[in-house]
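Worked example 2:
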Amino acid sequence: DADADDYALGGHGTAVAGIAAANSNNEIGVAGICWDCKIMPVKVLDQNGYGNWEDIANGIVWSSDNGAHIINLSLGGGQSQDYLEDAVNYSVANGTVTIAAAGNINVEMDFYPASYDNCIAVGALSPCCERKSGVNSCDEEYGWGSTYGDQIDFMAPGVRIFTTRLDNPDDTHDSEYYTDFNGTSSACPHAAGIAGLVLSQTPNLSPEMVRSILQMSADDLLDEGYDIETGFGRLNAYNALMGFASGDLNSDD
């Protein structure tokens, strides 16, 4: 329906949206990665943060059919569903860049929809620019780590991220902003925002081209080249924009 009020998990969607596209130059709060992009809020989970795969799949298709250039999926689970993969495939074929969180389980495993071939999978970095990995991370946040595997495209910041939060009168917080929004849920909209910047500069790029640009412009981490813990490396918005503008990256690559 038309009610997209966000009461799930203390405003999870609001926090995600703020990272991707919070307004800037207004002397309020934070600036999103793609600060002039627009948000299409499509609600597929209940107030407890749960939902079913069919609703999520329907939300993906509806978003793509109604003009979404980028879909951010800061959600997921360990079970694959054919109709969910079909929805992702449909959205990409329909011209929509579709991006998902890799998961916070700290093991090598598939996590869906991030692990589908046509979905971009984003892992989370600690403040020390390493895969967020529980007890081995520099941030002393031991409760979670970024799920990894050969589905990972690249990494983005995922610990203690500043972003918008829901101004919910039933909430005990006294601030409209988070200072510690964590997880691959926060890494994913960094990628969505950078994809938004790239498409703002060159709107005719296909989802496959956008994915390649983000991969090729990432800063390599760990082993030289691709690895299953960090993918192609750390996202770099400047490289993604300037490399394409200079011709180092082009639509034929």
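The beta strands are 70-73, 97-101, 120-125, 154-157, 161-164, 177-181. The longest helix spans residues 184-201.
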